[in-house]
Design a protein that fits this description.
By secondary structure, this protein is α+β, with helices and mostly antiparallel strands. Helix content is 49%, strand content 17%. The chain is rod-shaped, with a radius of gyration of 45 Å.
Length: 477
Amino acid sequence: LPTAQKQLNTGKNYGPIRPPVNAEGEFLINYFGTAHSIPSISFVDVYNNTFPIETVKNKIILIGEMDAGLHDDVYVPNTFQGPMPGVEVHANAIETLLTGKVLTASSWTLTTVLIILFAGLGTTLVMYLRPLVHLPLLGTSLVLYLAMAFMLFRNNGLILNMLYPPLTLTTAWIIGNALKFLLIEGEKRFAIKAFSHYVSDSLVGKIITDPHKLQLGGEKKYMTVSFTDIADFTTMSEAVTPEELRDFLNDYFDTMTTCITKQEGTLDKYIGDAIMCFYGAPLHTPNHEGKACAAALEMHRRIPALRKKWETHPHFGQFSIRTGIATGNMAVGNFGSQKRFDYTVIGDKVNLAARIEGANKVYSTEICISEETYHAVKETYSCRIMDNLQVKGKQDAVQIYELRGLHSEQERLFVQSWQKVYTLYSAGQFAEALLSLQQHQVSFHDPLGEVYLVRLQKLIQHPPMAPWNGVFKMNIK
């Protein structure tokens, strides 16, 4: 052995060597090489005395079997090229004792401390860092522990526990992620359950993944807003009990809200019997004008079924609704105070939608849309111009249109007939418009036509002052 050679050459008397054995008489061997790394001499050469005496002079000599076929071989920790002959195991044991490089396994106290530290580290990584950060840190921590264990083994002969601390770190990371996932998913389910009454699930998911949208403030967006209310609701509500009104409105709101969320609309609020909603936020929604119109048409199609459901009630069996839709730039976001705010929209187009919803009462129509909405949906839906209207509170007139439904041949003939009437009316040719309108009414029995019959008769009796601009001023909201 190289070390034994050096020490024996000094002539030093080592005295008795006491190996650091445990209660079972065992101690850890520090292996200094792999199998067959210690020089050996064949028994034949010894028998024939054909080896140089310098090879064994002042050295410790061990006699043993080296041939693998004799089965005196042992698998040891650094067995990389096959098992080690048993005699070499004894040689490494002697080298360990002579050099004093005895190996020491870490105590259970140290191992327990490392387990606690790694459990805390794994939990901290998961709870306070994002996945893209804590996953690389987990790998880095494991590599650093392995590097530290190697250095302590090499320099100090200390064998750290290579199972429990790394396993604890990995397990804490896995359990932490599982708990965090369950916690977050629970919060998401709660949020979805709470918000799904107002917006579709896809919009709830966007709000959850983009929390800044729940902060106070707003942004300018091109959107579509809609108002719907029940005709003559005040009179209806005065004739029923609060409990009856509650049950009816809950049924009505549930049906209407389903139509809105189906088209990715956001329910803004219930205002008495009125429903305010918008399309295009918080998610950008392509064709938000078309979705608003689709929702409105479905809401109105659902009314006959609700009437039938409440037909035995003297006041709810014949109700009807009116809708106003407007498109344009508006501010959307959370408005209010730091303690209480609403996610809503504000702006001129919002006011316009509310005003033209009320215009339905004047024109005997059900769904009234703004000019911007009309130009966006006219290829999909049948619409006809209602009037050039100046609503209360606005100086400029706006063209408003009736949304009627999908295109059909019957609708084409209807709109074509009405357009002829309105063209003559807007040109100031009232007598010709009246004649055309009378023909229109014979064919279609149009409620809006009845409104224009009265108007045209008044205009013929009392012609307006020139120039005629065709603007009708509505003085009610």
